Amino acid sequence: MTKITVAIIAPNKLTYSNVEMTHSRFEKFRIEDDIEDFVEFVELDNMEEVLGQIINTLNLSPETVAHTTVCKEDSKYIYQMCHIIDEAKNKQQNNIAIRLANSKYRIVDSVVLLKDEIMADGTTMPCNITINDVIELYQECLIKSCIRINVDDTIDDVKYIFNPIDWMNKELVPNIRFHEIQFADKVMMFFIELNPIKNVLNNQASILYGREIYGDVVIAMRHKPEDIRHTAYEYYNIDSNIVRKLVAIFSVPKDKLKTEEPKKISTKQVVNNFCMITDRKYNLYKTLYKEPYSLEVLETFKTSKSLNQQSIEMINNAKLTNDTTKTE
To answer: Quick one: CA dihedral 207, 208, 209, 210, positive or negative?
Structure first.
C-alpha cells in the first residue's frame, strides 16, 4: 500500500522586518534556509496512522479544540493544516503556520500539514507532501500574484507583496481607483485609471466587470471573508491562465454554461472549489465556442457610462457633498 508523507512544522519565531519584505529576499533558496530547521517529514502507512500523528503532534486531549485550515486549493490539490489556536498567548507561537493560514489565527505549538489530490468526482486522496510543496506554499503567502490586462489584449502576470499596486510608479497611483465584483467565493478587484493613459476600450476587463473600462487594468483577487472580525484583505493568487478562462466564461450568458456540481458522497469529503468551478465552465465553453472569448456581450454595455467616467463622477459628487457640509 502507498505510504503517506505529512509535514510537521515546529513552533518558531520567524519574522521579517519591513526592510526585508522584498522579492529578492523571498527567493526559494532563501525561504528554504529560513524554514528547513522547523520542518520535519513523517512517512505513515495509512490514514489511521495519520490521525494518530495529528493527535500526538497537537497533544490533543478532551479539553483541546483542534482546527483544520485550508492553506491552498486548486483543481488538482488541496493543502490543509491541523493546528491549535491560543488567543490567551500561553503557548509557543508558530509564525510559519500563521503565515500559511494568512495570519487569521494565533497558531501555537507544532502543526501537521497535509496534501490531498482531488479526484475527478471531487473526492480527495491523501498524497505525499514534499519540501518543495512547503517552500512554494510559504513563498505564495509572502509574494502574491495578480495580472494586468492591457488594451492590446495581452495579459501580464504581476507579483506584489503588500498590495496589488505596490509595484506601480507612485506618481501614477493618484489616478487609480478600484472596484470589486464577486464570483463564487472570491472577490475580483479592478484597479482602473480615472483618466486612461491609453484611452482605448479594454475588451477583456470590460467583459469581466460588466461595464466598459478604458485603459490598462490591474486585476487582483481576494477571498470573501468568512468572519467579519477578519478585516484585513486575504489575497488570493491568480495568473493570466485563470483570467483568460474567466474572460471566456463571462463573455457569454450564464445559462449557456450551466454545469453539474460534484455529487455529495456521505462517507467522503467532496471538494468543489473556485478553480474546479472555473475549469468546468471553461471546458464547456470550449465545446460551444471557437474564439478565446465572445465580443457580443460588449454591445450590452454601450448604453451605460464607462467605469472610468462613473468613478470620476463619484469622486466629484463626494467633493461637492464635503464642500456643502463645510459651508453649512
So the answer is: positive
